[in-house]
Specification:
alpha/beta; Rossmann fold; 4-stranded parallel β-sheet; 12 helices; 45% helix; globular
Length: 351
């Protein structure tokens, strides 16, 4: 089954209308109970099958299927951390992760998976979980990190680094869950690999004051089992100093006693995170990293940064993005007057 990303649809849609772009961004902010999120998600999954994503409800439809699955995971992850003495919550987290992946894949079984999760929560005496409030703010960095260009390039880079072998992909919550599921499913698609595994571990140093990844003893055993015969990848949607993801890498290397690779979509200090090479005409063309080659890439000029949050300008910065990706998403890369120089639609400033 070929993976069709919901993020591709969302970012393609927002290029058509500044109003729709604003609506999509606003939809990232949310407050509601887990029970409400499950109800809204089930209703949207059913409507999607019956009427599709008609334009009058397109923003709501896509936003629900993109943002609610990570919110369900968030509720179960936080509950697991807060009730570490209650290991029965961990199977619920695994079910929530499976539900999220099913929804992102567009699997028709997602409705049944969701209903089973709700029934299990109630049947095992965790009804109070359904009343748990899930609160999410709009975060420009997390928004930018969900850009499908970033996710596809990260997936393709992982394929190069792993040789397309099965991986265990650990997304650091909470910010890394949505982009992480998207990158993971893209990886499985480009690597033609259905033996890889996905899991979520909370490590939120700023928002939750976590000193280390929050992993219980039974989760250690589960992660170690997943890592057997698979390369190990830790993902965070963005990095700033790199301290969080590097601390997580060292943490998991001790646990699994094997090399742990890291991956990220958005480097807040050195953005944007495409394979960035000096211009071939410059005096620095020889400083290109040995692990990457410009062959197979096309030059792309960015006109403005994504968000005004970061003041570092990169107007006229030459970047290179793989030709295979450009051909796959050709509609997003209108040619400018100079041959083989691209300005993606959603990089352009407002006119």
């Amino acid at each position: 089954m070929v993976y069709h990303s919901l993020f591709d649809e969302m970012f393609s849609d927002q290029t058509e209308s500044s109003v729709r772009r604003t609506e999509f961004r606003a939809s990232m902010a949310y407050a509601g109970t887990l029970g409400t999120i499950l109800d809204e998600t089930e209703r949207e999954l059913i409507l999607h099958v019956i009427v599709g994503d008609e334009k009058p409800r397109r923003v709501s439809a896509l936003s629900t299927r993109i943002y609610h699955p990570p919110r369900i995971v968030r509720a179960l992850v936080d509950s697991k951390v807060e009730h570490s003495h209650t290991p029965a919550i961990e199977p619920l987290l695994k079910d929530a992760i499976s539900l999220g992946l099913d929804i992102y894949r567009g699997d028709e079984r997602a409705v049944d998976t969701l209903r089973d999760l709700r029934t299990t929560i109630s049947g095992q005496g965790f009804e109070t979980l359904l009343e748990r409030i899930v609160y999410q703010q709009y975060d420009p960095v997390t928004w930018n990190a969900g850009n499908p260009l970033y996710s596809q390039e990260t997936a393709m880079d992982l394929r190069r680094r792993t040789g397309g072998e099965p991986i265990v992909f650990i997304a650091l919550g909470h910010g890394g869950v949505a982009a992480g599921m998207d990158v993971f499913l893209r990886y499985c698609d480009v690597a033609l690999n259905d033996q890889s595994k996905f899991y979520v571990v909370r490590f939120s140093r700023t928002k939750s004051n976590d000193f280390s990844p929050q992993v219980s003893p039974t989760e250690w055993k589960h992660i170690q089992e997943l890592s057997q015969g698979r390369k190990f990848v830790v993902f965070d949607e963005d990095v700033s100093s790199g301290e969080t993801i590097n601390q997580a890498r060292k943490f998991f290397e001790i646990a699994v006693q094997t090399e742990v690779m890291t991956a990220t979509n958005y480097d807040a200090q050195n953005h944007p995170p495409f394979r960035s090479f000096p211009d071939p005409a410059s005096n620095y063309s020889q400083e290109i990293g040995s692990s990457f080659s410009q062959e197979g890439y096309s030059k792309m000029i960015l006109s403005t940064p994504f968000e005004s949050t970061y003041q570092k300008p990169f107007k006229h910065l030459p970047l290179y993005i793989s030709n295979s990706f450009i051909s796959q998403y050709e509609s997003l890369f209108p040619l400018t007057t100079e041959k083989n120089i691209y300005t993606p639609l959603f990089f352009k400033s407002k006119r």
